[in-house]
Amino acid sequence: MNNQYSRKAAVLVSLFILVVNAISIHAADNWYVLLYNEIQHELVQVNLLDSSVQSFELGVEPTTRVSGDSMGFSADGQRVAFCAETLEPGVSVAQTTLVVRDVQSMNNLAQVDLGSTLGCHISNAAFSPDHSRVAVAIVRNPQDVPAADGRIWQLLVVDIASGQIVYDLNPTLAAVVNSDLPVDQLILAEVHDFDGSNVTFAGMPFGVGGIVYGDVYRWSLDYGSLERLTGGPHSNTSLFDTLPDVGETVWLDEESSLATIDTLPNPMGRFNVVRMSDVSGDTSIIYHAENAVLANPTYVAGGEQLALMLHMPMSDATVPQNQWIALNRGGAVTQLTSGDPILDLVDAPGGYITLTANSNMHTLSHHVLGNETDNTLWQSEFDGWQIVWSSQYPAPMDLAPFVSIG
User: Fold this and answer.
1) Which CATH number do you get for residue 199?
2) Residue where one domain finishes, among candidates 207, 222, 238
3) What is the pTM for the complete model shown?
4) What is the pLDDT of residues 280-323, one digit of tens each?
5) Is 224 helix (H, G, I), strand (E, B) or coil?
């Protein structure tokens, strides 16, 4: 009897391994990353399985500015929304057009004139679930806005089919006046989530460099109300990542009871800890950085580890200004080394993807956890590349919790 049970157990384990491997292979088969070159206005798709490459055009004039930092994609990567800015000689503000485009067919789905702007931003969370609407944030030059108007910043929701602005959040509305959002200071909204009825966003100070704070609000489109969110990942920062399949979220925070860097100018955030919330809502600290400011928390290998960027003080010339590490769920930390500086890092099946650069080459590589060698997927001799979108895939359901340190 014991031998029968042992054979059955072995068969079940083998079947489980086959299923896990099949899921991993399927994820890799369908996984790809999109890179964008701001200089050439070129969008490139690189597939993980066979390193095949496909290029797409944005359909804008060479003199038009389209920033990868102001480019958002639908959840399936099929639609892109971007701010096309045209700057005339001797003029400090741009004439801006919101463009929504089908990536594969390279056809524009909407073009909306946004007027003159100092800044324009669209995030990868800005599309509604059905991809029919998109949220775009703009900032205007206060000198160009009549006092009676007052709309020095706006968060707009655009209906893509009609090209119409259907909702407009700005400092003239009672909901804003009665909130903590500034009515006479420039903010650029960073959209965290758009569920179709509510837009969750952080009001980030405009024109401030570094890692900054931004209070987070939920804007109800149906009722026009604003609710400030406190506590958890949406409390005061855009620096968080989530595993919705397992109900886990990590975010950066400042813990005053633990050592932190105190030489940074305000309003830069002194993020010295990573907090985690599990499916039950319990919160704990899983990492503390004493001599660096944390940035860019990114789940890798489907959530098996957490990658973090450590921003080192400028005065410390003995180490690179930015370093990447990986925290596993047992609490062990490893340094993510690369021969060249890491520009971008995203999750990928089995590990993570990096975009690195030196004076001669940009390189996109796939790093598999446990492997010493990396797989080069793509290279370019041109400057100006960045990762703007990557495929999502389900996280393993049997992930152990991260070890809590407080």
Assistant:
1) 2.40.128
2) 238
3) 0.88
4) 989 999 999 988 889 899 999 999 999 999 987 665 555 557 88
5) coil
